[in-house]
Amino acid sequence: MKHNIDDPTSKHHHRHRHKLADTYEYNPYYTVPDFQNIYLDKGIDFDIVAIDNENKNEWVKTPSDQISELKDKKHQHWPIKREAVIEGDLVLGGLMMVHERSENMTCGPVMPQGGVQPLETMLYTLDIINHKLKLIPGVVIGAHVLDDCDRDTYGLEMAVDFIKGSISNIDDAEYACNATAMRKVISGVVGAASSVTSVQVANLLRLFKIPQVSFFSTSPELSNKARFEYFTRTIPSDLHQVRAMVEIVKKLGWSYVSIIYEESSYGIKAFEELEALLARNGICIAVKEKLVKDSGVADESSYDDIVQKLLTKPRARGAIIFGSDQEVAGVMRAVERANATHSFSWVGSDGWSARTLVSDGNERAVEGTISVQPQANDVIGFKEYFLGLNMKNNRRNPWFVEFWEHHFQCRYPGSPRTPYNGHHKRRCSGMERLTVDNTEFERQLQFVSDAVMAFAYAISCRKLYKKAKVDWLVSLPAFVMGQENPYLKRPSGMKKEGRLPEAWEDGIKGIAVGLKNCGKDEGQVEELVDASLFRRSSNVKRNDMSLF
Predict the structure, then answer these.
(1) Which residues form the Receptor ligand binding region domain (predicted)?
(2) Overall fold of domain 238-374+509-530
(3) How far apart are CA 468 and CA 234, in angstroms?
(4) pTM of the predicted structure, to 2 decimals
(5) Which of 100, 169, 228, 264 has the smallest C-beta neighbourhood within 10 Å, fewest atoms?
């Protein structure tokens, strides 16, 4: 079946249909007439059901002190599959880690910074594209966003939704379509966040020539264009971070360090490069420890063992941690339990060092951390937009109620019970407000906005310069991937409503690295490393380096 989205009258089938016309000028504020009709699936009393052959006990009838026991049971219907959908003539898929991973369940608790905020950034950027910039006259770009729960296998399962409209030449005996069904054709996918999930999804999407632009996946493995020809990213490869870390170690005069890295393509590839660069610079490695990631979720005793091994090498006070927030938070809790908060000086990767999931409750353990992060600017207007959201005006995000309950530690009236809101004793009043004082923002949201903008500009240019009698969608994947797209090759423009990328994988080969010092003496970080060490251009000035 040939894609035919050049026709603005084409329609797409969605489970939830939210028309863009319902938004006011640029910001998507909706009114929710009836919470239960929107957030509670028809015919299902509760989101989670613990299967019991005799009485079929439901979570809502279970005392909170028994929830942990029920988490170990199999066949729980958590989570109910949800999707954030905006209607459009052309639809972009989105794969976000709205929830954390969980060992006993498919999905863990909601992830505010790394999941909900990137999702809202994607939707906000689409509002800017469709309503303010109007890049493609007569065509509205829609979205179909799913949750991968920071788990590669589940993310791959979700990504199957993105290829259904592209499937053709299937044996009718095995695959039959309802004649009245409307297939949605996904023109490209924004995501995933995790490198290991992006690898899995990229292997699937390439079979259907669907372009994919990730915003947080930094593994060097994804730079292999022979394997991932339909994949690109708006965030630079970890190779730049690794170089920055080694230079920091050298500037600090450390000759003996430990390395902790996560068990994923993100951590393993970085470790291999770190090991080689440290050896080349005559720096010895005291302890090498791997954090469980792909094979499951580690228990607290595993983190305690890692910290005890670090303590056996007291001369190696410096430790590099290349991992994600959920795993590193476990390490920091173990440091607190071991009363070893002043035993280590951390150098952290972008996967954890700016996330409150790690620092909350572990402030003493993370104090003094120097983190390496790709330089990113704020998405203009996003903070104001996000802080203006509430339960009554954000209808299009089906996970927003979970975020609200998590953020304010309350139970929203009428909301379904989950494994993570049963302990909330206070009811949400509806008068809660997101403010700059109670909300921490993800520092790399620019890369999410850049990914959406890349598709928009690619589609706009292809429409403008398409040749007569040529199906422009056929060459769209190649165009988005940078072969014809000047916005991926030569970033420029967009000074007010977000910025086009400045460090594309196949464009500018360098990165200005920003450093963050988690502690009292942030000013001292400026003297450690010159940004020009990590940027291709040799004329970068010191004040080009952001200290966030």
Answers:
(1) 118-460
(2) Rossmann fold (3.40.50)
(3) 32
(4) 0.72
(5) 169
